[in-house]
């Protein structure tokens, strides 16, 4: 089944889970699309089975809290950033709920966490104005970049380069093998003082970069030339909430939630809005991702919603 405008418009909430007593901070699908793990301000990690559509188990990080979370390539392991005590990143085995390793280094909140799509490398960005490069096999930071402002960062789908959004006005591209030589490309965007950049993602085909903000607009860039192809707006975000924006796996559509619980969808190429979906969320939709393998997506406020199409185009 192919994603089209009509299929996207037909998506409806199939299931809502109320496992959390506070807002969900982040979630991540496993690469096979079979499970999803969420982190919440209630200090819990909830693991869901996407095929059966139900929560499987709940783990807690009472001492450190849990903020950003990402699956690694090994089954049943995650890395996550903390929001209590310190800003150390933790590598956790879900199988036995034991820490495999700690990654100390950041001394302010971690605002970006991206796992390499090809190996055990990951990068993190922090309010301490650094990006750190890590290897899951070592607690020592493998690389450190000092920046002029708060960074957001992400790997490209090949795992060869990463992009850093700095100071909410520049995107810098680095070659992973020689990042210490500085960026090989820098794109300067028009600065918008009404909002800060909160996220940066590549499309799966590697051709586009999506910059999300805590304001009412997203920007879509050409990943090679740095030109702004589209700005997307018309969704509610008056309280400067960090709303997650995502590409669909085919790189054809862009989605974001809003503070009124609705999901807005645009066509990436033409820039036209194709759908506004009502998620019946009770608060701002802070997390939103399409499943990498199946025709479903998830959105979260303090509740988690699983969506399915109601037509097959």
TrEMBL record:
> Could you tell me which InterPro entries the record lists for this protein?
Swd2/WDR82 (IPR037867), WD40/YVTN_repeat-like_dom_sf (IPR015943), WD40_PAC1 (IPR020472), WD40_repeat_dom_sf (IPR036322), WD40_rpt (IPR001680)
Query: Could you name the domain of life of the organism this protein comes from?
Result: Eukaryota
User: Pfam families of this UniProt entry?
Assistant: WD40 (PF00400)
GO annotations under biological process?
DNA-templated transcription termination; lncRNA catabolic process; negative regulation of DNA-templated transcription, elongation; negative regulation of lncRNA transcription; nuclear RNA surveillance
CDD domains, sorted: WD40
Its Gene Ontology cellular component terms are:
Set1C/COMPASS complex
Chain segments annotated as transmembrane: none
- In this chain the WD repeats are located at 17-58, 103-138, 235-276
| Keywords for the protein's UniProt record, in alphabetical order | Nucleus, Repeat, Transcription, Transcription regulation, Transcription termination, WD repeat
| Keyword Repeat belongs to the record | yes
Q: Which GO terms describe its molecular function?
A: chromatin binding
Subcellular localization(s) per the UniProt record: Nucleus
Q: Where this protein primarily resides, as one coarse class?
A: nucleus
Family the entry assigns? Belongs to the WD repeat SWD2 family.
This chain's protein is named: WD repeat-containing protein 82
